[in-house]
Amino acid sequence: IRVSFRATFEKVDEQFRHYFKTMFRGGHAQLTIADDDWDQGGVELEAQPPGKRVEALSMLSGGERALTAIALLFAVLEVNPAPFCVLDEVDAALDEANVTRFVAALKELATRTQFVVITHNRRTIEQADAIYGITMGEDSVSRVLSVRLAELDLAE
Amino acid sequence: IRVSFRATFEKVDEQFRHYFKTMFRGGHAQLTIADDDWDQGGVELEAQPPGKRVEALSMLSGGERALTAIALLFAVLEVNPAPFCVLDEVDAALDEANVTRFVAALKELATRTQFVVITHNRRTIEQADAIYGITMGEDSVSRVLSVRLAELDLAE
Amino acid sequence: MHLKQIEIQGYKSFASKTVVEIDPGITAVVGPNGSGKSNITDGMRWVLGEHSGKAMRTRRLEEVIFAGSDQRPPAGMAEVRITLNNEDSWLPLDFTEVNVARRVHRNGDSEFFINNNRVRLRDIQELFLRGGLGPSSYAILGQGLVEEVLRLRPEERRALIEEVA
Amino acid sequence: MHLKQIEIQGYKSFASKTVVEIDPGITAVVGPNGSGKSNITDGMRWVLGEHSGKAMRTRRLEEVIFAGSDQRPPAGMAEVRITLNNEDSWLPLDFTEVNVARRVHRNGDSEFFINNNRVRLRDIQELFLRGGLGPSSYAILGQGLVEEVLRLRPEERRALIEEVA
Ligand SMILES: Nc1ncnc2c1ncn2[C@@H]1O[C@H](COP(=O)(O)OP(=O)(O)OP(=O)(O)O)[C@@H](O)[C@H]1O
Ligand SMILES: Nc1ncnc2c1ncn2[C@@H]1O[C@H](COP(=O)(O)OP(=O)(O)OP(=O)(O)O)[C@@H](O)[C@H]1O
Ligand SMILES: [Mg+2]
Ligand SMILES: [Mg+2]
Fold first, then answer.
1. Is residue B136 classed as helix, strand or coil in its secondary structure?
2. Whole-angstrom distance, CA of residue A125 vs CA of residue D83
3. What is the CB < 6 Å shell around ligand 2?
4. Which chains touch C (3 or more CB pairs under 8 A)?
């Protein structure tokens, strides 16, 4: 187990650094093992958006926190691609530029992992291969409007 | 203090019912005093979107929770209008129809309370009387772009 | 392995039988507030073996059953069934197609199925745990939970990486 | 009473002196992720007397001082000053215009001012508490905290209504 934990850790850390730099267009992030104790030590996380001096994760903004967490999720999916993944409004705090970067990375990962993405964000919807609309009827029952075609004209 | 607590409570409850019905276009919400104990009892909150049988607040959706909380905030502001109020992305979970209702109620309250509203939502920005853009420079220092005119052409 | 279909009936706001077919790639799910989108996420976590009421936004597990509305009576049972293409034998089963289902009845009885054979909850959990798809895995991220990984204590983050190993 | 102006200098990401004039009505504040919008909300709560580090997203209160960047040295002091129109005497002071300021220095020293007279933190808190504008009041809702009121225990919600009374 030790080989596989350390080997996995180093791969996830490497991918986390990569996805963080891609999503933030620079900056630096990393995972470290507390007290260099590979058997029991916890995993610490550092994130520095480009140019800034962030002294603690709590200083990151709402959008920066979401983007950092997404970079870590994508790193884990890169190392061990789950067959499918459901993301419920993970892009809610992101501004338009960051949504575009999020979706670009998603499309790359989608060659190996199937994604079901719940979103209100137009830019995310536009990049989907299929779209399902959920409606709540007068009778308070949910129904699915199957709109498989992605060329739905998005009213905005 | 007893007269004023009970009197205030009943006014806030009345306004909460009103704002909830307006925001949800129906349904029912109310505040109740636990054990009818006006001296020490806690304040319970119930919210039923139209047509549904919600057995606990935890069953509400993300957007329904935000809208319910906004209805309570607006009720409190109606009963005791604070001179100014700062709202930081309270509309993030709301869909377009609910944002429109949120902003309509905000404009009514804005005759008595000044609002500073941080938002990424176009529909909220369009209704503002003034807009400030905040940017982060290359030197990681925040600056204000003063765009006082609300007729800024919003790219969308 | 990939997901082919999700069938929901009587689970939360999906009183009527609802079928969602999933293609490879990215499927977007959209709709107004309160329409039932997150109930689909909860349903996915539930069928994969989630047993915590808090994660299901309920106090008792029978509360996942359609509670009724002004116009419809409560349901007697909730069922979620997912169909998976297993041609790559990602799931250690000799089937090219696998379907997994979970039911709960008003009286609290639960039933679990793999290819229509009745199994225990533990069998489903072990089936998916192999590749990081356990009920509380990173692969199903509930609403508002994206930042959760930043709030975890270092030991909890270690458990996440161990799940991946 | 209404807010006329917010001045921020050396507070969080506002290294240079920044002035935001506020009109009556609705003022929208927009900008990319991480640009400094919520730092303005934190600044407002801080000048009104907030003393909890958690609410300020910091561990120690000196962490609100601009920490420096690759291109700029750290600041030695943080200051937020708000100017209020008090023609309606909402604030129990004989001035038609009131300005309230708070400073903190690297060595941890704090200073509080009302119309440029040095006062104590308690004086500022009492001044605003009268009308529900205390530091943790409902009138300043931080990011992600809108649903907080639904998560409160009943006794805590009671305290909210008592603040309004
Ligand atoms: N057991 C149940 N029976 C009937 N309805 C239920 C049940 N459990 C939840 N609901 C209803 O489902 C609705 C919430 O659905 P859900 O959380 O999926 O919404 P959503 O589409 O994700 O909305 P949002 O965009 O606001 O996040 C609530 O209005 C709730 O009343
Ligand atoms: N003491 C400080 N010195 C320098 N920079 C700081 C300090 N405290 C916070 N910051 C920086 O301020 C930025 C966060 O700003 P803020 O939370 O206001 O962003 P925001 O505009 O609200 O973004 P979002 O839209 O993502 O919520 C962080 O990048 C953080 O590094
Ligand atoms: Mg939802
Ligand atoms: Mg913010």
1. strand
2. 44
3. A 49, 52, 54, 59-64, 93; D 12-13, 31, 33-39, 63-67, 143
4. A, B
| Structure-block tokens of residue C152 | 């975890």
For residue B138, which residues of chain D lie inside 8 Å, CB to CB? 71
| Three-state SS at C55 | coil
| Tokens read off for A3 | 């080989």
B-proximal residues of C, 114-143, CB under 8 Å: 143
Q: Tell me, what DSSP letter sits at residue B34? A: G
C132: left (phi over 0), alpha (psi -120 to 50) or beta: left
Pairing of strands C2-9, C18-21: antiparallel
Identify any residues that bridge with B44 across adjacent strands, giving them in sequence order.
Answer: B32
Q: D15: closest CA among A60, A62, A52?
A: A52
| Per-position DSSP letters for chain C, written without gaps between them | -EEEEEEEESBTTB-S-EEEE--SSEEEEE--TTSSHHHHHHHHHHHTT---TTTTT-SSGGGGB---BSSSPPPSEEEEEEEEE-TT--SSSS-SEEEEEEEEETTS-EEEEETTEEE-HHHHHHHHHTTT-STT-TTEE-TT-TTHHHHS-HHHHHHHHHHH-
Task: Decide: residue C153, CB within 10 A, 0-12 exposed, 13-18 middle, 19+ buried.
Answer: exposed
Residues from chain B that touch A53, judged by Cβ atoms under 8 A, are: 140
Q: Which of A53, A95, A140 sits opposite B51 (nearest CB)?
A: A140
Query: For residue D92, how far is its CA from the centre of ligand 3 (angstroms)?
Result: 46
Kind plus residue range of the DSSP H or E element containing A125: helix A122-126
In angstroms, the CA C10 to CA C101 distance is 13
Residue B149 burial (C-beta neighbours within 10 Å; 0-12, 13-18, 19+): exposed
Q: What residues sit around ligand 3, an ion, with C-beta below 5 angstroms?
A: B 61-62; C 37-38, 143
Task: Report CA(D38)–ligand 2 centroid distance (Å).
Answer: 7
Asked if D77 contacts D65 with a C-beta cutoff of 8 angstroms, the reply is yes
pLDDT, one tens digit per residue, over B3-59 is 589 999 999 999 999 999 999 999 999 999 999 999 999 999 999 999 998 888 999
- pLDDT tens-digit profile, chain D (165 residues): 899 999 999 999 999 999 999 999 999 999 999 999 999 999 999 999 888 888 888 888 889 999 999 999 999 999 999 999 999 998 989 999 999 999 999 999 999 999 999 999 999 998 887 656 766 678 999 999 999 999 999 999 998 888 887
